[in-house]
Amino acid sequence: MDRTDPCWLFGYGSLIFRPAIPFVERRPARVRAWTRRFWQWSTDHRGEPWRPGRVVTLAPAPDDCCWGIAYRLAETDAAAILADLDMRERGGYVRMEIELELHAPAGQAPDTLVASSRVVAGLTYQGWPGNRNYAGPAPIDEIASQVIQATGPSGANADYVRDLDAALNALAVEDAHVAALVAGLGG
Ligand code: SIN
Q1: Strand partners, 96
Q2: Which of 89, 97, 99, 174 is catalytic?
Q3: Within 6 Å (CB) of ligand 1, which residues are found?
């Protein structure tokens, strides 16, 4: 693990398809032993307090991994960017240190790039079980019906799901949970 560069930020949800932050470099990245799950309520972006939407968090999964995008932040800007992101992700997420496996730049399938990977220390936003917006597991049909009904200041919850799915497809990443939810929305 290279601890000399503290400015890698890992996105696995909206931070993949709408980073809206300045960055120096962007790489496909993988975190081992975590999996992406629609187990977090959104009451401020993709839902409202009275009809929350569902957004992703990371759940421990010893035999799985989660692909996303790692952004290298300029050291001079990192504190300000993270302060802004703390606001954006204030719906129950906290910063978590995480080991990131960086891969070659987008445009090439991640699976073909494992040999060229490099591990660095990074940060991500995590919605731990028990946070005030933690929704937890539910059958995929139930999650789909909650997503279909929810919309918030950042747009329709279904668009979050479809934009995430499209971004993962563009990275050639297969995520069965996301794909099952897209199917539950009617494609
Ligand atoms: C992330 O994108 O990494 C965090 C969850 C979200 O904002 O969707």
Answers
A1: 124
A2: 89
A3: 11-15, 55-56, 89, 125
